[in-house]
What does this fold into?
Amino acid sequence: MSGKLQQKNISDSFNLIADKRLELALLIGAGALAIVLHKVLRWPLDMPGRHGLEFMAIFAFLRLASQQKWAATIASIGAMTALTLFSANPIGIIILLAQGVLLDLLYNHLSWQGRIVILVPFFTAIAHMLKPLLKALAQTNLGVFSDSLSMGLVTPLLSHGLFGFVGGVFGLLAWKTYQRTRSHFKA
It folds into this structure.
């Protein structure tokens, strides 16, 4: 074995680790960005779950674009970190982690041969519906009041599902555009 071949292999391995670290940093940063957008954007809609538009769009895009098996969970860690800068909301932190983990579990459950990316908006709808469910559990068991549950649980579940789905569609479309742009520049 020549020294050049061995040196090239070591160099390639180092570049792979650097790329993974960059991807991890981007996932964490994008998760934090989702929280910043949540705090900065004030949609004129006064409906529970409206922030699922930007939040689930970001998470759907990250889940589809990343090679990391737990991309949404990693991004949710970034979101959780950013949330602690804005407020000490332990229920919100649990919700963010649960949404990322559920999205990854649903996405990773599909095999590569049977993976149908059109299901991602349904996955983001389900993941976003966790928010009112977990808030209802906290309200019932811990006495933590939530304004979004003032109309009961059904309306917030439906609106979170709808906004999560639309956000997932936007994320899917952004990923499709990213794929086309990437293949266009490779050609």
